[in-house]
TrEMBL record:
Transmembrane segments: 15-30, 61-80
Biased composition (Basic and acidic residues): 465-486, 528-546, 559-577, 588-601
TPR repeats: 382-415
Gene3D superfamilies documented for this protein: Tetratricopeptide repeat domain, von Willebrand factor, type A domain
Organism domain of life: Bacteria
Region Disordered: start-end pairs: 427-601
Taxonomic source organism: Novilysobacter avium
Polar residues composition bias: residue spans: 455-464, 501-511
Protein name in UniProt: Tetratricopeptide repeat protein
Keyword terms: Membrane, TPR repeat, Transmembrane, Transmembrane helix
Length: 601
């Protein structure tokens, strides 16, 4: 005990000054107690000792002593007594990153072969591939700054635009890194981030850019710079046709990084420059200011003041009226065993319904359809009735399933899923009489196929699944917890999609033929393409017959219609992807809008 007291430290020692109030409180207590006596107001003071019998001293000072002890314990707990050291893991969080790329004509300079912009594309690809977590955004700038990709955790979505980064997409020429920094900070603010990193890719920084970097730092954002090109520079042709020389100004970029609280590095062959800038790891921790690595732990003092709360609460019981402490103890002993009831008391009706739907979904997924139907019956609404119908259909209780679908359609007459599944169950009832309910485990009672019906499976759930996804067997049933139902296409449609891909691949094969091919070779290629399409369509038709569950109510697609659709899809695949053209039109429209609104200089 003595050794432990020797380790005692106070984490918040200023609270100990509150103990100086004890004498003042004792004087106030005594004065208030004296004035509160009714006899002091009716009898002279010199007669009171002869008329009143004083209470025992222990009883007279018991209440003030308890109050003083409670006050002392509260102050000591607030002061944070610490008797030991503990290892505390550092809290970490992913930090967002906005990359601002220079797409002015200077990016075509060849001082870093083959060109600056080509090296930038490779560097950005390495950054997106090697960055660990955190959202990434992309901004392109020249005389104006435009958003290429907003902040997103899907770096692959940002990588789609790398090949389209070219000065040709920019609607206005110039070099305004200040506007790039301002636009990047605006992206971070719009996404709700209080801090983040802005990485400017440029060969120099202007005084206006340094001012914007200081503003971004004041808002909590760090501005770093990655230098493009070389100090010797290289000539390039401007948009107006003039020849100019682009050189990297390391001094101005270092000043910009210092103003923005970030770092500076010149673009290199390896990823050492990105590691120097610290943009490959998005994690940040509470020990970063002390030089500790995020994800590690530090030694800190343990606050043991909470132990003083136990005697403090026992003393607080004495302040209650007679009998109240016993009632409070009974309540404290009863509530922990009623955690579920306590949770229900604090939940809204929609929250309780949502939790019930989740329980029913879990039962459905494990194949306990009987239990799922019972739980769905406890929830009101079209979605619950629709899912209950699915669970009843999986048990073979067709009539009850149709009644559940009718109940859902009564609340939501336009629910297409319920209409389709109801028709599928009716079709199954016509093909085969309803079997008895199967066990909840799903191992027996499963309706078998009916050869005369021309279907591979007469289970109504299979018919329903062929039109809409079954909540128990498809990933899209996760949506049932929110809206209660999911969607799917017939199994035959999947094969049609495969034939579409086969046909389109064949069609794309002809695209690779040179335009100067002779007519005979082209005709042979077209004939081979038509033959492959015909085989794919026949294969899809045969597979659709073998699987054919949901074709009872769906309008079949004729061979001519299917061939025309596949041909249209093949021709659509001929249209080349042009993300550069998309960016060019997007930036042009945005620039014209800014000019109309007067938001450009």
């Amino acid at each position: 005990m003595i050794a432990a007291l020797g380790q005692l430290q106070w984490l918040r020692p200023d609270w100990l000054w509150a103990l100086a109030l004890l004498p003042v409180l004792a004087w106030w207590w005594q004065r208030r107690r004296t004035r509160a006596s009714i006899w002091t107001q009716a009898v002279d003071a010199h007669l009171l000792p002869h008329l009143l019998k004083p209470s025992p001293a222990t009883r007279r000072w018991l209440a003030p002593a308890i109050a003083a002890l409670a006050f002392t314990l509260a102050v000591l707990a607030l002061a944070g007594p610490s008797l030991r050291e503990v290892q505390q893991p550092l809290w970490t969080q992913d930090s967002p990153l906005v990359v601002a790329v220079d797409l002015s004509s200077a990016s075509l300079a060849a001082d870093t072969p083959p060109s600056r912009i080509a090296r930038v594309r490779v560097k950005l690809a390495s950054l997106l591939a090697g960055r660990q977590g955190g959202q990434v955004g992309l901004v392109a700038w020249a005389g104006e700054a435009f958003t290429v990709a907003p902040l997103t955790a899907d770096t692959a979505n940002v990588a789609l635009f790398l090949d389209a980064l070219d000065p040709d997409v920019m609607p206005v020429e110039g070099q305004r890194p200040d506007r790039a920094i301002a636009r990047s900070a605006q992206l971070l603010a719009q996404a709700g981030f209080q801090d983040g990193t802005i990485l400017l890719l440029s060969d120099h920084a202007t005084p206006a850019a340094r001012a914007e970097a200081a503003k971004a730092k004041a808002r909590g954002y760090t501005v770093s710079a990655l230098g493009l090109g070389t100090a010797e520079g290289a000539p390039y042709r401007t948009a107006g046709g003039a020849i100019d020389v682009a050189r990297r100004d390391d001094a101005s970029l270092q000043d910009l990084a210092a103003a923005g609280g970030g770092r500076y590095a010149a673009l290199g062959e390896s990823n050492d420059d990105l590691a120097t800038l610290g943009v490959l790891d998005s994690r940040r921790g509470t020990g970063a200011a002390d030089g500790a690595e995020p994800g590690t732990s530090v030694t800190t003092r343990q606050d043991d003041g909470y132990w003083l709360l136990l005697p403090l609460m026992l003393l607080a019981l004495l302040a209650f009226r007679r009998g109240a402490p016993v009632l409070l103890l009974v309540l404290c002993l009863w509530l922990p065993g009623r955690d579920a009831l306590a949770a229900d008391l604090w939940q809204r009706p929609d929250q309780r319904a949502h939790r019930t739907m989740q329980d029913a979904e879990a039962a459905y997924r494990r194949g306990d359809f009987e239990e799922a139907a019972k739980i769905y019956a406890d929830v009101d609404g079209a979605d619950a009735d629709y899912n209950r119908g699915n669970a009843l259909a999986r048990q073979g209780r067709y009539a009850d399933a149709i009644a559940a679908y009718d109940q859902a359609l009564k609340a939501a007459p336009t629910m297409e899923d319920a209409i389709a599944n109801r028709r599928a169950v009716e079709a199954a009832m016509k093909r085969k009489p309803p079997p008895g309910p199967k066990s909840s485990s799903g191992e027996s009672g499963e309706p078998k196929g009916d050869d005369d019906a021309g279907s591979g499976n007469s289970d109504p759930s299979s018919d329903a699944d062929s039109q809409k996804k079954d909540p128990a067997t498809d990933q899209d049933h996760d949506k049932d917890a929110g809206d209660g139902r999911g969607g799917d296409t017939p199994a035959a449609q999947d094969e049609q999609d495969k034939s579409s891909r086969s046909g389109s691949d064949a069609q794309n094969g002809t695209d690779n033929e040179p335009e100067a091919a002779d007519a005979e070779a082209q005709a042979a290629a077209d004939a081979a393409q038509r033959e492959r399409m015909r085989e794919a369509l026949e294969s899809a038709g045969e597979h659709g017959k073998s699987e054919g569950s949901a074709a009872a109510d769906a309008t079949p697609e004729s061979a001519d219609e299917r061939e025309r659709r596949v041909a249209n899809e093949a021709w659509l695949r001929r249209i080349p992807d042009d993300p550069g053209g998309l960016l060019r039109r997007k930036f042009r429209i945005e620039y014209e809008r800014r000019q109309r609104e007067g938001s450009t200089d």
